[in-house]
Amino acid sequence: MSDNNLLSSNSAPHSDVEDIKRRSHYLRGSLTETLADPITGSIPEDDNRLMKHHGSYMQDDRDLRNERAKQKLEPAYQFMLRVRAAGGVVTPAQWLMMDRISHKYGNGTIRLTTRQSFQLHGVLKWNLKNTIREVNESLLSTLAACGDVNRNVMCNPNPYQSEIHSEVYEWASKVSHHLDPRTRAYHEIWLDEEKVVDSRDQDVEQEPIYGPVYLPRKFKIGIAVPPSNDVDVFSQDLGFIAIVENGKLAGFNIAVGGGMGMTHGDPKTYPQVSKIIGFCTTEQMIDVAEKTVTIQRDYGDRSVRKHARFKYTIDDRGIDWFVGELTARLGWKLQDARPYHFENNGDRYGWVKGSNGKWHFTLFIQNGRIKDMDGYPLMTGLREIAKVHGGDFRLTANQNLIIGNVSSQKKKKIQSLIDHYALTDGVHYSALRRNSMACVALPTCGLAMAESERYLPTLLEKIEPMLEEAGLRDEDIVIRMTGCPNGCARPMLAELAFIGKAPGKYNMYLGGGFAGNRLNKLYKENIGEDEILSSLRPMINRYAKERLEGEHFGDFVIRAEYVKEVTDGQEFHS
To answer: What is the pTM of this model?
Structure first.
């Protein structure tokens, strides 16, 4: 295959999005002119497609749509801006920057994502350039936080194995940087860098990894450090599992072809857990990542976007084909996969002392939303901690936050601020709530079919008494909810999951693996709250009485034949 990808010929079958990317002159499009248009708060669809690659999506407040339509006003257009930091590690100064711009340009809240990134909501078109400029001044970026490129590289925060985490984090950063787009469009449009050329006919700019039309769809990479699978490594297009031998990082097992997204009612789309294909040393990791991305660049489906993710590329051709193609591009063979063991995919809350002698405090952040609430000044408390903190903040893959690398001298001061602002590790919540995640959904996500972030806490309030009565309040059960089947909160891996179908209606799934290693399965379709609760009560009671020692809820519902075990993504739907 040539350095350019299969779409180098205009005659190759492709979707309209591929045309938009090809015409964009390496993601420039008409964004500069569009942003200067004072007539509307929106941008044309072609430019909106390109905006993803710059880290933003156009949205509108769906709660206001009908009222604004009655008043003959355009929708309340706004932009979600995603800020990425490889491995989710940021400095206190960067945290304070996010806090500041959320109030200056956004809706006054910060959202921690399931990919260890920040999201700002409510940014107006007129404020986008200043917002992105201030993000970059703090040495963070929005480039490639969305779009048909490699996204934020996730990695395990692992505060109790500090040396290993530090090394893994460095590799996550190296992979992320290596796979960044090389186009200068981002710097020209948002940071006022001088244009490379005036003529769009002069193709002097190259993307050595992505080519002129980038990837067919988004691409996700995650690095896990056993025994914790908190990054849900099997949900990634490309996953690296750290192999620690004699206390040292020996390298990584490689897993390929994971992905969560699907479409309701379309059995040709399905979630998939990745497959392990071998082992590489740390020094070989970047080469493996690059060559894997180029295979997807050259062979991914560019004609049907629903079929364009890497999991379908592998499923269509077979895992043996992929390994052969990867070997040919690498010029060397992977080693056999090495033993590892995952125990969970959650976070360890509260204070933990790392092997480097520093302390780490993991806060429970319900659904990742940082804001001040009645009786709970979360955002203010974190702001005051950031002012005195000498370590770092780590965004976990479960939407929680670690106040990391606290010295013994600073620990007392940090604890006093935690106490003063009543910040919580969630110990007073049920284990179910501490293991919960939800996507944003309504009112801002344009894909949402039902509520998620705003509704899951209410549903939990009604499930928790059942657990209390059954003696299961402290039993860890992974529960996740999304407003659509795009899979942003990775619900397809949860032991108990709800995926929005319509306002107030959800598909209910059971049987995911507690360690994130098995898909769940559809149990009931298009049900409301009453049926959700009536279905769960007898199930919870049976689990309390009949579970085996150490048996997780996801394993029990399979053994009790509520659902069958899923061994292949195409079994997920029924």
So the answer is: 0.95
